[in-house]
Structure formats: C-alpha cells, structure tokens
User: Fold these one by one.
Assistant:
Number 1:
Amino acid sequence: MSDTLSAATAARRARGAAQATLADTVRDLWPYIWPADRADLKARALGAVGLLLIAKLVTMAVPYAFKWATDAIAGDKAVADIPLPWFLVGPIALTVAYGVLRILMALFTQGRDALFAAVAMNAVRRMAIDVFVHLHQLSLRFHLERKTGGLTRILERGRNAIETIVRMSMLTAVPTAVEFLLIVGVFLYSFDWRYVVVVSLTIVAYMWFTTKATQWRMAIRKSMNDSDTDANTKAIDSLLNYETVKYFGAERREGARYDKAMERYEKLSARTYTSLAVLNAGQAVIFTIGLTIVMAMCVQGIRAGTNTVGDFVMINAIMIQLSQPLNFMGMLYREVKQAVVDIEAMFKILDQHPEIRDRPGAPDLKVAGGAVRFEDVHFSYDPARAILKGVSFEAPAGHTIAIVGPSGAGKSTISRLMFRFYEPQQGRITIDGQDIGAVTQGSLRDKIGMVPQDTVLFNDTIGYNIRYGRWDAADAEVEEAAALAQIDRFIKTVPEGYGAQVGERGLKLSGGEKQRVAIARTILKAPPILVLDEATSALDSFTEREIQTALDRVAQGRTTLVIAHRLSTVVNADQILVLDKGQIVERGTHTELLAQGGVYAALWNRQREVDAAQEAIRRAEEAEGKSVRVTVGGAPGGREGAKRGSGAAGRPASGD
C-alpha cells in the first residue's frame, strides 16, 4: 500500500462509521491532488489558481465595458466619468474593448483548465493504481465472495467520481465562489446594499432549493445505480458462461432475466430524468425572479436619474454571467453528492483488510532442496465445517507425492494453503524447514509452480500467456518451454504463431492446448516445487496421456505434489496419500496400497470398472460405425442391414 493510500485510509478509519461529507472526501483525496513527490504538479496547481483569479477579474471587467459602450452609444453624460484615456472612450473603441475582454476571459479560463488537467488526471491515475494493487492484495476469499461485474462497476464509478470532485471543485466551485465575492464588491461599489441583499437572497434560495431537490433525487439515483450494477452483473455472468447458455438452450431465459433487470433500470432512469426536470425548472424560476427584481430596481434608478441605461445592461450582463456558474453549481452539487457516495463505495473496498499479510521484517524464502512438510494442519473455511483435520506428511526434496481421495476430501485446499491463499488455523507448513507463514508471500509463490485443472488464460497472445511464467525470458527460452510442453508444433500451424490471440479465458484453444500453455508457462518459471492440481482430470484419455508425458518431464528433479482424480496418473508416485473427510487415512506406494485392500484399493477398483465400461462403449460405437459404413457402401445385408442403413441415414451413429 502506498504512503498516499495509507494516509487516506488512516483518516477514514479515524472518522469511524460516520457518514462521509464532501470535506471528508476532499481531505482523503488531498494527498493525491497535492502529491508530496511532484513539485511540477504543485507548480501547475498554483499556476491554475493564478489564472483563475486573473480570469475572474477580467470577467468582472466585461460588464463594465458593456455598460460604457452602451452609455457611449446613448450619448449619456456618464461617459465623461469613464476611467479610461479619452481616445478609448468612443463607442467603437469601447465595443472593441468589450470583445477583447471576452477573448481574454476565454483564454485565461481555458488556460486554467489546461494547466490543471495534468493535476486532476494524475490524482485519478494514482488512486486507480492504488486500488488495483490493493485488490490483488486482498484474499482469495474476498474475490470468491464478490461478483466481478458489480465490483468493476463500483471501481469504474469510483474512478469517475474522483475526477468529478477534483476537476469540478477546482474548475467550477472555487471560481464561482470567487465570482460571487467580486459581484458583491461590484454591486456595493457601483450601486448600493439593496442590490447585494437581493442577489444574496437569490443565491441562498437557489442553493437551498438545489440542496433539497438533490437530496430527494439521491435516493432515486442510488436505486438506479443499484439496478444498473445488477443488470451489468447479470450480463457479464451470462456472457462469461456463454457455452453453458448454449448447452442448455437458455438464450431466451437469459434474455428474460436481463430484461427484468433492465426494466427496473428503465423505470428508475425515467424517474431520475423527471426529477432532474423539476430541479432545473425550480432553479430557473428562482434565478429569474432575482434577476427581474434587480433590473426593476435599476429601472427605478434610471427614472430617478441615479442610474444610466448602461447600468441596466451591466446588471443584466453580471447576472447572466453569474447564471452560468450557478447552473454548474446545481450540477456540481448533484454530481459531487453522487461522487461522494461512489467514492465511499470504493473506499469500503480499500478498507478491506488483506486476510493474509507478511509479518513485519519477514525474510524471503530460501530453497535449497524444496522439501515440503505439513505438520498437524487444521483448516476450515467456515468454523462450523472443518476441512482438514490434523494433516501431516512430508514430501522430500525431488520426490513426487500424490494426494488422492473422494471429492470434498480437502485435496485442493492443500494447494491453496501451500500458496498461502489461506492460513491454517492450527499447525504449520514448512519448506526446507522454514515456516511459510513467516516468509514473504512473493518469495513463496516465486518458488512454487502450479498447473491447475481449469487453466484460464489472459485474453492476449499465446506468447504473452507463456511468458507470464517469467516476464524477462528471452524469445528462445519461451520457444524452448513451448517445445518441452509439446505445444510448439501446434503454434507453428497457427498463422500468427506466438502472436495468435487465445480469446476470452483462452476459449479459442482446446482443453489440451490450454493445459500445454499452462505447462509451458510453469516450465519457463522453473520453480523448485511443483503443484499439479488435477491437471488432467478434465481431458479425454488420449489427450491425458500426452499431457501426462509432458507433466512427467516437468516434474523431473522437482518436489512435486500431485492432486489427482484419476489414479492411473499417480501409480509411479514415490508416495500416495489417501485423504478422506479431511484426514489422511492411508499412505504408501501404489503396490502397497493395493495390497492393503482399503480405501485406495476400493477407489482403484471402482475407477477400473468405470474405465472398462467406457472402453467397451467406445469399442461398441466404433464397431457400429464400421457396420453402418459397410451397409451404406452396398455390402450384402438382409433386412437387418437395411434397417441399419436407413437408421444411419436418418440419425448418425454417436461414433461419427
């Protein structure tokens, strides 16, 4: 966690559960707006403030130029009192001055925006990277319990909210406040206190109405955002499970499910726009009443001879100029109010504590041989249901240890504990005698390679996914890893080669191809310890044999833990552990365990029966396929052959 994020987090925790205000949020964001390590950005911020003040002074001069030009055209005697040289007092000169001042006002305002843009976007970038890094530091439990679609929407809105507060507070709120103070000074100098009272009451009424109406709208906006998040989550979930939807022909059901979420979003969106119309109408009425009153007061002054026609147009110009930022202030209040809510939702994620943390001063893991040892390890995801109950075993350096057992026995939990995705509630895990809970997580995971059952690839190229094992590897090393994983021949057949895109989650590749990419990635990483978590259980028998050959090659010389579903893949393991209901009930070699006639032998016999049945079905299908092909080809056959032929024509055999 960066120092900037730590300071903001500490401020929020000191605030406790109290509802965050705009001031609280700005205080949390201030380290990003005013970064201690960026003198150039501080200079830009100060420069933007300077241009802001100059722009507002010029803005106040514009109505004066308009007034003087009007009085000059009308031939009013007040022209003689204009504080300008005589050659600039003519109607044309004053009109030109009015145009020049408006140009300068626009240039200074846009210059301020351009100067401050780098400050605002740097704050957004630094906050975004802090949040991104923090998400990767959170535990596996957090990510398993969250919906990815909803999480990304919260982060997206939070990022946009930061930009809203940083940019709009600097580019709208502060300039409007400065302009209001200058207007008060102008009215006191050129008119009298009554004008100040009317303008002040107008602005107070305007802001009061805006506040109340916005508070009413906030509940509607919140419900709309919730429905938006729900619809987005359903869409992402459905698209990620595209194949499953197709398998079950559930397109209509998914469409109806998404439409139901969008129907709620539609209704709430309509209410949001209706409430916005009410807000804008009320603001327009309040401001117009104030404008009309001060202009009527000026008309009375013209009749009394205390004001000129130029004063009348000047008041109109000042009020119209004020209306523009005031309109933005209404939007600003709405957007900032929503931004505070969105940022707080993101800050709740930032306030999540990582379940697994490195201890202060934790050393890096030093691996000589790679001996792995579990010592009386107890673990449960939920206190009410124990998963591992006193598991103890040792994997000597360079040996292969297989862990087998029925589903739900706790096999995959062992691999998650080795990677420190979770911490055991009791006992410890050591590598070469070092407690993995006492070393840094980065060094631990650097020494362990993983080939999972379900390989999920990044939506990038084959080369990118292989190189993920060791990012600084040379191209030759990537190609060598691909050759060892027996994926190089496939890559050579693809037009783009290593630059071929694999698609979302690697869906453009077959299961065997994805596994080979995962193996190549692990070979490139070259870890001293290897974990194979049911790496071939999702593959067909032929592909399994090919992948198993590659895995055996990778495991040579490494300490290997094989979590297996198919027992045929672990018959050559140095030791097999049989896990059942969270406990190791048997251990030994394949031959020893069969001789015991216990749980392993029962699993082995059951799997052989299943394999034999599947093989018989496969041979029967092949035989039926050959018979069908002979019949269709015109070979002798009686009534039975004719039936087979007609059956094949109407319904292809499953073997085809």
Number 2:
Amino acid sequence: MASQPETDTPTSPVSREQDHEPAAGLDRDLAALLEVERFEPPAEFREQALLNDPSIYEQAARDPQAWWAEQAEQLHWFRKWDQVLDDSNPPFYKWFIGGTLNASYNCLDRHVEAGLAGRVAYHWYGEEGEQRDITYGELLAEVKCFASALKDLGVRKGDVVGIYLPMIPEVIVAMLACARIGAPHNVVFGGFSAEAVRERMEFSEAKVLITVDGAARKGKTASVKDRVDEVMGDLATLQHIVVVRSKGTACQMKQGRDVYYDEIIAAADPECPAEELDAEHPLYILYTSGSTAKPKGILHTTGGYMAGVSATHRYVFDLKPNSDVYWCAADVGWVTGHSYIVYGPLANGATSVMWEGAPDYPHKGIWWELIERNRVSILYCAPTAIRACIKWGAEYPNKHDLSSLRLLGTVGEPINPKAWLWYHKVIGGERCPIVDTWWQTETGCIMITPLPGITATKPGSATRPFPGVEAEVRAESSGEPIEQGQGLLVLTRPWPSMLRTLYKEDERFIAAYYERFGRETYLVGDAARKDKDGYFWVIGRIDDVVNVSGHRLSTAEVESAIVAHPDVAEAAVIGQHDEDTGQAIVAFVTLQGDLQGDDAAVEGIRESVAERIGKFARPKRIIWTDDLPKTRSGKIMRRLLRDIAEGRELGDVTTLRDPEVTSKLQERIKELQAQEA
C-alpha cells in the first residue's frame, strides 16, 4: 500500500468535518480519525451497492416472513415450501415447511448447470508454497465421488460424519459430500486435541471420521492420524476412519476400519445425485463451549440456514460474484468457516481465497502478498489478527498493492476503535467500508452488522440488526427493553438460520437460551449497550465463557483440563482483557498438599490443557493460591476473581466461607504486578 498517501484527515465522507494539524505519522493520523464520530459509506460505493436504500429495514420489519421468503427464493428448491414459518411450538421453530432442497446442489450443481463450471471456487495456498485453483466443475466432480465413497462405507441419510481436517481443499469436499447425501457433518477445529475430537465423536455418535495423516503449522508437520488412534480405538459407534494423505506422514492403518481418501475416491461411482432433503433436515452439528464442561452440540438444518448465510453473505459483503475475489481468513472448524468460507460463498457463486497457514508464516506479510497476488476485493478476519498485524507494523502491508480491496469485515469479537481505525487506514486506504459483524455459532449467520452501502459506521459498534432480525437490550433486573444504555442482548424474533436445538438435548436447549425471558426471546449470553442512535455495542460474555481470539471456551472445560493434572487440587478460570487476543485465560490454581508453584508447574499445567483441549486454550497467566473465594455452599465466586484480577472494589464479602481469601489474593495480585513492572 505504499501508493496510498498519508493524510491528516480521512478521505472517506464523515458526518462532521474536522480540522487537524498536519499529520506527523500513522499515530497522529489515527488520533485524528478517533475524533470522527461516524464514517459514511463512500459515495461511489453507495451508488454501486446491492442495497443502498435505507427503507429496506422498514420493508423487512413490516413483513419479516415475506423478506426471508424473498431471500430463500434465491436458492434452488426441488419443491417449494407450503409455509414460511411454523411458530406453533416456540422455541422449536421450523422454516420453509414442506420445501425440499440440497445444500451441496445449491453450492455446486446449479452453478455448473448455469455454465460456470470453469469459474474458480477457491484459490488454495499451502504454507510451503503449494497452490491449487479449484473450479466449480472440479469441486463438483470430487464431491460426487466422495459422496459415493461415503455411501460405499455404509453412510446413510441421517448418519453423523466427523471431520477433523486442517485448511486443505478436502475439508470443503468432505462437508459438501455429507450434505449431498443428507449425512449431518460434525467438524472439529484442527487446533483441538485428539481427546476433544473423541469427546465430540462420542457425543454425536459419529459413524465415520475423516482425518489426515499430518498437518502443517509454521514449517513443522504434526502427526494427526496416529494421535487420533490413541484415543479413538474403543469408540463403539465409529465404524471407519478415512485418511487424507496430505503431508506424506507415515501412519498406522487398522485393517477393516481405516481407508485412504484417494483410494476410495478412485474406486467410487463418479455419479451421485443430490438427495432431495426436507428444509428441516439436519445439515450439521457444531460443538461449542457452554457454561458447563460438556460442550453443546449446536444443530443447524438445511433450508433456513442456507437462506440465512446466502442472504447475509450477499448483502453484508455487497458481493459481485462476477468480479469480486473474497477472502474469509478464518478456519472451517469454526462456524465462521462453515457459513462464510463454505456455504455462503459457494451458494452465491463466489471466488474465494483459502489459506492453510498462520498469518505470520512464512513471513508477516503473507496475507498482504496473497491479497496482491489474487486481487482480493473483500477481506473478512478477526480483530485478534488485526491487532497482531498492528504489533508487527504497517511496513508489512505497505510493501504490497492493496488497491484491489473495496470492503473489509471483522468477526469473532468486538473490535476496539484503535484496531478499527488502523484497519480502515492502513489496510483499507480510507476508502473501504468496514462491516463489524456480530453473530454466534447458534445464530448460524450474521445478526447485527452495517450494510456497507447504507450504514454510517462507528468504530467499535456492530451498528444495527440485519433486515429481518430484531434485537433488544434488556435490563438485567426487570427484563424491560432499554432504549439507551447497557443490559443483556436478546433476539426477539425467530430467524431462518437459528439453531433448532442442542443435539439430543432439547431441555438443555430451552434452559440455555429461553428460560430467562420466555420461549419467544433468545438470550444471547452477551452484554450490550445501545446508544442514542439505536446502534448496538456488544461488550462481552455474561456467562462463564471466555472468548480467546474469537474462540469461545467454557471456563469449566478449561478448569477440568487443569484439574486433570495430578499436582492440581482445584482451579478456577476467568477471562481477562488482553490487547492481543481480546480475552486471555487467567487460572487461579491450588496445588495438592505442600507442593509449590514454579515455572515447571506452570508449563505442566499449560501442557495438560493443550493435550485435552488444544494449545489455543492454554492459560496465559497462572496465579497460585491456597484457596479460592467460595460461598458457604462451596460455589466458587468467579465474579470476585474477575474483580480481584482487574483491581476493582469487591464490596461485601462477609457472606463468603472465608472472607480472608479475597484479601490474600489481592495481595498476591499486587505482588505479581510489582514483579511484572
């Protein structure tokens, strides 16, 4: 972006004019931008946007069912629905009743039939320089073969198939092949440990698991299949493990159970018609952390989910499939990857970039190199990544021509204003609207977001609900709506891509999301603020969940992994603000007997968490303590731990079993801060 001149005022239109002294560098420029209250869509962008008339909000609000039906019409239906929404049994809503479709057909066949077989679906890049351009025609052919191969392995409609793969093309093929035959997939993020994979396969009763010989990460290859074998051998429901030969890593293959991906593809029937599936047929299960140690199996169905992700992908990113090159720099193992790497982009006939590796390998400019090489026009990534890029310095993006970018997006957590403004100036050249999106695994698609051709944005605010979505901020005590101020974020109207239930746990589904405000009001689990303009500012979690780099983790899940270490007697985990990852995991740990905490103990505990959950879940800080603040009934007061860690006043602690614990912890925190200073 060396061609972009530095200026002392923003070049994009804003809601008020500012006079600034001449800039003395990037920091001065950002300081000037901080004074801007609202960033209006650039006039040229607005003129060419798919949606540029604000009345679309009122139109959708007047008749939301008609609005969502209009979005669903963009898909291919074997049979059109008889009823848009069945709301007779909330919260078990059903959408597009009587309609039949297939997600794989909508992502592939219809585009090929329309003459787009030669269009590139993915520009894929491996971290060691490998490259593949995969067209819609090629992707369809491989999906058909693998779908046939899964049927040859005995997979039938309704059977769950596990997928534990890195960011390689086969993960896309596997998901679409499952969708093609009506087998719900259960994808597990490649950063999770093998133990976490087993847990999710056991919960979902997966019949087949698709994994890989080895995975690359920053120049090293880690064995995957052999690690999976160590924990999966006695899982009764698992009949086959399919192994993708990606890195040439030697692995053991169990006779009668294990098969190689390339071999079964070669032997499979190249024709496999897409199943005509009911709109409410399960598309996938995706496990997410909840407020207990047991992960929650979020269940999404086909018709409503596809309507939601295709519409939001089209309008939030203002997608022009004939000219745009789109890059969602997430991982397929999270819902962002499901919705905005796979199903949304492919349903809309987009050309995407897919990157196997980290944002700083083989060098810290790899993202910007890929954007320049592929003329990427839309970039969607996490604030965590943006903050890392800020730390590395503007010199890396400045070495590359980023003029192809016309829209930027953020996902996974709220973005702080400084990171928003750096993204706006350094990456977007002050010409690209930023869509700061809020949504969840449970919602399936984007819920609160700017519309780039309509919405004046405010750094740090997700702005307004997407058309057809209704959100409120409610008072925590009374449950009454708050027009301006802070409270609990709720969604008050059903939407097509909403989770249908927790897999095989209907009662837990109701208790987790609909118990507090009734069966027609979805409790998000986030606190939010609504400002005088009606804009939403999402603040963070209200339950015992931490958000590390956009990855939601249950505190109980991490605590269980810590306590599994033989030297640990007890542990409590909280999330603490962190400049790099949004939140960092802080663990208060009590050791067995007279054991003393030292560096070796810290590393042992961190390794225990890495083995049971994944490296990304390792605590950033471990604070040794002889006891934890507990009620007289023995409940650990994590709220007090958060207050202690942040240095806030604790208020009345006399109701605790041992009030002295808090003062000892406060002294311990002061000691640590003095040492760190």
Number 3:
Amino acid sequence: MKKRALAFTLSAAMVLSLAACGGGGGSQTSTTTAAQQSTTAATTAAAAETTAAAETTAAEVPSEPVVIRYGTHWINELDPNFTDEVTGEYTMAEENRQAALAALAAVKETYNVDIQFLQYPNDVSTDLMTSVLAGDPIVDLALLWGGVEPTILSQNVLQDLTPYKSLFEDDETSWMLKDSLFGGYYLLNNEVPQVTNFPLVVNLTMLEEVPGLKDENGKTIYPMDLFLNGEWTWSKFREYLETVKAYYANVAAPDGGKYEFVQAYETDHRYAALAAVHANGGAIYDGAVTADSEECIEAVQFVKELMDDEILVDCGLYDDGFTPEWTTGSGDFGLGCTVFTDCANWLIGWEASQRSDAGQSIGIVPWPRPDDMAFDSEDYMQSTNGGNSVAVLKGVSPEKTELALKSYILYWQTYYYTLGGVSTIEEYREASAQKLLQDYGVDIFNETYGDSLVECFTYILGHMNTNYSGLLNLWEHGDWTWTELLGKSYYGIDGAASYDVAIKQHLTDLTNITENIAAILKTDEVHDNQAPNVTTEDAVLTAGTDGAGVDWTQYFTAEDSVDGPIAFTADDITLSEDLDLTTPGAYEKAATLKVADSSGNEKEASITAIVYNADNTAAPTVEAAEELPTVALNTETSGIDWTTFLASATDADGLDVKSSVTADLSTLDTTTPGTYDVTLTVTDYAGNTAQTTVSVEVVSE
C-alpha cells in the first residue's frame, strides 16, 4: 500500500473500438492525419525510451498483424471511431479521440498489433466466466468496472501477472500495475490519477470572514498555507476547526441544509475516517486485512474525538442510526451550510458553481497528517477508490499475454503523452492538475491563493493510495463490514464498543471475505458464482379467478449462464398470503420463484398479480402531465415513451393502466420543428378506453 495507486480523469464505464475492425454503430476505417502522425512520432519516441518497446527487436515483432481484443461494458466514449447512430458524429471528445488514434498508431507501428476493442454482449461477470469455462476467453484484456473486482477475482478467471512484473518497473509504467492482492498481481490501471473520491473541500470565502484566522497583518491564513509550510497536522486542523466553529456558531445556515446554523465541518464520517486512516499510513486492506492496525485505530479515534466535541458533525443519518446520508454533506456544502466537508468528487463542480453564484470560492486541500509524522513521509497519503481495473483472462497464451501487456503499456503512455503534450506521466499529472481544478470550478487564477491551490492539488494527485476495501467488498456489502462496524462503534449501535474493541471482536467478519477469495484463487478451477437469471411477466387475472386453476409457472422463465435452462415446478413457487383474487388490485410479490443452479447459486424473483373487474364498463381516468417532455428533431416516433406525457391513468378500481397508452401519430412530424396536437388513448384491462390530447413540441438540438 505504500506504492502510489493512481486513478484516472475519464469516465468509469467506457471502451475503445478499432475502426479497422468495425465498432458499434460506425464503419469507418482508422486513419491518422499528418498532424496526428507528427504527434504520434514524438510521443511514441518518448514512450519507447521508457518501456519494453525500446527493447523489442525486429525478430520479436510479428510478421503478420496480431489482434489483441480489449473488452469492456461501454463503448461510446473511448472508441475514437464510434459514431452516434442518429447523428453520425463521433461520440468521443475530439482531444481524447486524437490521443486514442495516436496510441493505436503507435502500437501498430511498434508491435504490428491491431487492438480490437469490444463491448461485452451481456454482463462482464457472466461473459468472462462462461468464456473461460469454455476454454475460449472472450477477450485478451478485460476492463472491469470499479466494484466488480471481488466478483471476478472469486471466479478465478484472471491470470496472475507476476511473471510479467518486470514490464512495470520504472516510473513511466509502475502506475499501471495495481498492488499485489492475495499474493499475486491480477489488476492493472489505465487511469492516471484524478482526485480522491471524497476530497476535503473548503469554502475559502467563508474562512475570510473569521477574524481568528487572520495573521498580524490581517491576512487570512488558509489551509493551503499551513500545508505548504508543513503545519497541516491533526492538532492544527482541530484548532482551525474550533476557530471556525466559534465564529459561525450563531450564524443561521441558508435554507435547505441539515442544521439550523452554519457548521465548521459537516461530513460523512466514513470518508473522514478513511482519509484519516490513509493520512496516518494505514489501510483497511494492505495485502491482508489491516483494519485492526495501530494506524487505523489512531485515525478512527481522532475522527471520533472531533465528533464527540461536535467539531465534526454528521450530515444526517439513515434510519439505522449509524449510516450517514449519502452525499448530503456535499449538498449542504454547495448551499453554504458548512465550511469544510469531504465532498463527493462527482459533485464538486456543481457545488462550486452554487458557491460561485453566491460570490464565494472553494478550495481542495489534502487531508492533514498526524502530528508525529514528517511532512515528507512516504506514509502520508490520500485515499482513492481505485477506479476501473483491467486484467488478462486465463486461457490467453503466455506469448500473447506478453504482447498484450506491452501493447497496453505503449497504448496508454502514448495516449496520455499525446493528450497532455508531455513526455512523462509526472508531467501529465502536473498539467492535468490545473485542468481538473478548473473543471471543478476552483479559482486557480486568484492572485492570493491560486498558485497554492494548484500546489496542494498536485501533491494530492501524486500521493494517493487505493482503498482496496472498496474493491474487495470489505467496505459496505454485508453485515459488520467496515463502514457498518465504524458507524456502530461511533454511535454504540447493536452493542458495539469503541472501534479498537469492536474491530477485534468483528475482524473475522472482514477476514472471512478475503479468505474466501484467497482460497478460490489457490485452486485451478474456475468458480461459478453467478446466480441464474429469472425473467418474469405480471399475471393479469379477472376478479373471482380460482387460484387453484392458475398455472403460476407460466409467468417465470429461469436460465443459467452455465447450466442453460433450469426446470422448476409449481412446488418451487410461493404465493403471498396477501393475494386476494376476489378483489381488484395490484398485488406485488404475489408469487415468488426460488431456483438454484448446479453450483448452488440461488435466485429469487417475484411477480405482480393484476386482478381486475371484467364487468367494469366505466372509462379510465386520464390526466396529462403538467410539464410535457419535448421531442428532439428527427426522433423515431417508435422510440417515444408516451407514458411520460401522462401524469396518471387509472381504471374505475384505481389500477394503473398508464402503460397501455397508444398515440395517434397522423398529426406528428418529427422532421420539422413545431408544436403538434397528439391524441393519446388509454385502454384498461376490461377494454374500456379514454383519450386526452397533448401538445408535443419538436425541437432542434
């Protein structure tokens, strides 16, 4: 965990597709312009100096092009040749598209490799497992969306890349290899770091109102000043917050916030504690479960002390009494209700824009370190969620694995060198810091503190550790996982003692999770951990139907990705005690099917029973929506969801029949902007109809 794990600036669910092989809705052939060739030449040369590409001899380059298949679950935003099916335009941002084209060209020129980027046909967890089981891996390089890693690791379908570790030894490549897990290297990065997932943000303008934060010359002492001077420690943070709290204690918070008065530090205690753990050189998982380490216990206790003294307040709790309300602290920060918070990184731009509209500026600062830790200590880190991962599937030959990894390295180096106009990853990180801050709405051009904000953020980007507990289901998936244990210990829920005691009592709840994965990885067998798929159809029945005569099996279909169709009988279906076939109504979970595959994976699914009055002759009641959607120019009318034009549609017994709406399209022309009256017809279960006319506005993009 001392190794810096890096996260990426692009979206989490994307894939690339090579034009020469076809991609999604596009049929273009990959080409490289003269300008691209110039950029490619420069960046490829830089990459070649720092990668195994520089050592590749002509004899090692295949004489015939080799296809390396690179798979993922979303193709639109990273495929440089993918086009929108309607507009025909490229879906990838142009600067990223040019970088991707340059990377493809570099790999082709250096290794004679064509990278074919593919979208998984169904679900990554199922597609990878079934293809490896069949001895025919669907791809060579598999992108895993962040969070699916424990499921995939538990299938034992990934290669241990330890034999290829030497490819990732220098500064230009080491960031691509994620830390060792369970004694092996299974996961790769393609993501140069962005900010930690919940960074510490601060309202700088609100700080300027606090007299106690001024120096002898009346200038505000900002957190960035303290950090750059090596003074940003836990005790200084506490003192700083106490000063802020004293000033704002009786200042009314803007409407819409959780608290009546402005808070110094309103946040989600889970992310504050996680940040403190990493700042203290600790981790919840560091090759093994280390949530009981001295570093973790100290960090959790520090946050608890801030909470006990009401210097840190939670952003509201859900009904369980220990789980913070998701992103509420971020929202309150955007409203100006708190000076500090750990803000969800995907919300920073929005919250900053709200503060900007109010004439205020925000900053992002490192989470402080413990007092006994040196500023330049390698243990002082910030936490990140790790982003997506990439892996090599079992069944790919050693020769192709090595070629795939070399191509992967050269591709992403060239991509970032081209994108940033740089020759090293460190230069890219520094260049991206300013762009990211601008995207977040941080005032980096402020004469007073703009430069210090960039310095602080650059430090964060270069000092991040991955929160592997989030990648291994130790975070919040199940009873007594880490965040649940943390919250219960903070609030004394379910008899939980203080964290240092509770973690020892419940450590096995965490270690059992990792030990189960480790045990599977020690075997040679692929482990089927995917439950069967059950499809359902609502049962529509007339009131008075004899339940004994209903064949409930007709409303279910069960199929397993390995076993194929799964047979079941009426004995596998349980009827709800609330189901009343004599009274009209919609009965949720009226019938529930439970099935299992040959590996013991179980799946339950339920249907809704619609019981209606067949003798009803009253027309349905239909009400149009108050705010009608607009229709984009040239929209295919078959794709318009007419239910969105209705506020409600019910039959005489109150049954929702909105889904039965049809539209008279004879008056609608989606090829011409304008407003058109469209008649909508709703039919209830007894065949009665009602109509309403809505004004449909066709608008150009």
